[in-house]
Amino acid sequence: MYTGIKHLHSTLAYVLLAGLIISILYALFAYLQNKGYNRKMALLGLICAHVQFVVGLIAYFVSPYGINNASSAAMKDGIARLYFLEHPLTMLVAIVLITVGYSRAKKLSPSKKQNASVLIFYVIGLILVLSRIPWHAWPAGMAG
């Protein structure tokens, strides 16, 4: 089961990155051209992020590198610490920021502010995601 979840999580990472980049670019162009806010395009990035996070949570609890690796020895090993603590915690913060950006945009009035909200929060979320991808195992995503 773990192998399947790991492959799914690695594959969905591409979907997440594509969804976030598409949402960010759409919000950027709409912001620069003073076009209306498109909630469906922002929702694309939000849904991709949440689906990836749910699969990541499952992987965290069934992986030998996730919650099962909680020890002081894991904190001393950089790779083990990445899988056990840094990756999940940073991804949680990124998902929260993406969700806040989407929710804020729904409440704002002018479309320029809506696009700015999505743009700012999604970009910060994307930076956080990119900062804690286990690059030694990805894009192949099959190690670990």
Task: Write a brief caption for the model.
By secondary structure, the chain is mainly α. The chain has 5 helices and no strands.
Give the % helix.
over 70%
Largest sheet: none
Q: What average pLDDT do the residues reach? A: 90
Helical segment tally? 5
- Please give the alpha-carbon distance between the first and last residues: 14 Å
| Assembly state (oligomeric) | single chain
Overall structural class, as computed from helix and strand content, comes to mainly alpha
- H/E element sequence: HHHHH
Number of strands: 0
Percent of residues in β-strands: under 5%
As a whole number of angstroms, the C-alpha radius of gyration is: 17 Å
Shape: elongated
Verbal overview:
The protein has 144 residues and is mostly helical. The chain contains five helices and no strands. Helix 2 packs antiparallel against helix 4. The longest helix has 31 residues. It is elongated.
Set out the fold topology.
Layout: H1 2-32, H2 39-62, H3 72-76, H4 78-107, H5 111-131
Helix pairs in contact: 1-2, 1-5, 2-4, 4-5
Features of the shown structure:
144 residues, mainly alpha, 0% strand, elongated
